[in-house]
Amino acid sequence: MMASSFRDCKAWSEGGLPLSTSSNEACKLYDAILTQEADPNFVMGHVISTGLELVSTTSSTRLNERLASAVRQTVELANSQDISPREKLHVKAMELFSRGHFPKACDAWEDILVDHPTDMLALKFAHDAYFYMGAQTQMRDSVARVLPHWKPHMPFYLKGLYSFGLLETRLYDQAEKVAMEMKAEMDKGLKFMESREKDWQVSDVLASHNYWHWALYFIEKGQYEAALQIYDSQVFRRCKATGSMLDTVDACSMLWRLEMEGVCVKDRWRELLQVTQPHTDDHVTLFNDMHFLMASLGAKESGTSQRLLEGLQELAKDPGDNQQHQLAGTIGVPMCQAIMEYDQGNYNRAVELLYPLRYRVVDIGGSDAQRDIFNQLLIHAAIKSENKRHQKLGRCLLVERDAMRPSSPLTERLMQRALALHN
């Protein structure tokens, strides 16, 4: 099927399926994705469609036979054709990623980038896998190595991707445009988000995440109603509509942060559980698992919480090549247990489980802003613990937090709470 025969806006409308866009190009691209039968044996077509599903972490090849079969089919197609070394590496990386062998998959994508520095697919897939492993320096340097080969006129110009890597490795001044929240510059950050809302609210992939960041400013300032308003009108609404893992973990994280601050979130956990519960047995990433656990605990669904923990414990016994399952025993399981202990009011035990892991939490992936929930969890647990040493530790951690994020209202509030509880 040639591009000229793809349906434009008028053709979609005449077929009784109008699309909400005035762009003929967008309509034709949509048609191309739907029909994509120009060459059913085109290997890179399979690599991109199956690869995107794998990298979204919404489904596990352990449980989803359709997805596992799509991976096998791509490998078989590649083996039966004379394809280029670059395409062979793409297939290899996708197959490795499907088995949870994230580090080896990244090696294959990096092999591609040595010879083909403008291969956006290799760069983006590697970037996502590094993100899931918490490999911050690699995430930054992977982009830095190819940046000179990219020119501003090229599609997907890489400045945003590089800026994120700089931010995650705490080179804040170099990543200034996205670094406001990490430096706790609340009012400046709120003004910035508001002034650019029209630019980013149309981006399906990042809009919800940006609203989440916006809500974090309000939580930081103690303006909980404003945060909940964003949760209801944007974060949860979008998470329910997309089922995207980024949107889903953000929704879980936001409600948990609000509850740690003493805010009653009412029936919101129950609604969110509808989105997270089907993923209880996926165990694609530890980061996702911990957030699903927050939702089942919040909704008082103890059976689901228990099943999630036991499933993870089982996979930790024989992880094979799966990088996330290899970490499950030493990091994933104890962190899930810490979250459960905190939820049950066993703050002493929560601290004992979480404190020894605090410098290893980065290995579960996500961004610094997303992982900050675990720093806050440890501080809350330490402050609430009956153990005097834990209470002292809580104050020490707050002093440390203040040094990293000066003038944070949240740190100040927690400091006041600690003093009120312990005096």
List keywords for this structure.
single chain, mainly alpha, 21 helices, 423 residues, Tetratricopeptide repeat protein 38, 0% strand, repeat
Summary of the model, kept short:
This protein has about 425 residues and is mainly α. The chain has helices spanning about 10-15, 25-35, 45-55, 65-80, 85-100, 100-115, 120-135, 135-145, 160-170, 185-200, 205-220, 225-240, 245-260, 270-275, 285-300, 300-315, 325-345, 345-355, 370-385, 390-405, 410-420. This is Tetratricopeptide repeat protein 38.
Instruction: Name the assembly state.
Output: single chain
The profile of the biggest β sheet is: none
Counting DSSP H or I runs of 4 or more residues, the number of helices is: 21
What share of residues are in beta strands? under 5%
Q: pLDDT average, as an integer?
A: 91
Q: How many DSSP-defined strands?
A: 0
Helix content: 55-70%
Shape: globular
Radius of gyration: 23 Å
Class by SSE composition: mainly alpha
Q: Segments where pLDDT lies below 50 for 5+ residues? A: none
CA distance, first residue to last residue: 75 Å
Number of domains: 2
H and E order = HHHHHHHHHHHHHHHHHHHHH
InterPro entries: TTC38 (IPR033891)
Protein name: Tetratricopeptide repeat protein 38
Organism: Etheostoma spectabile (orangethroat darter)
Keywords: Repeat, TPR repeat
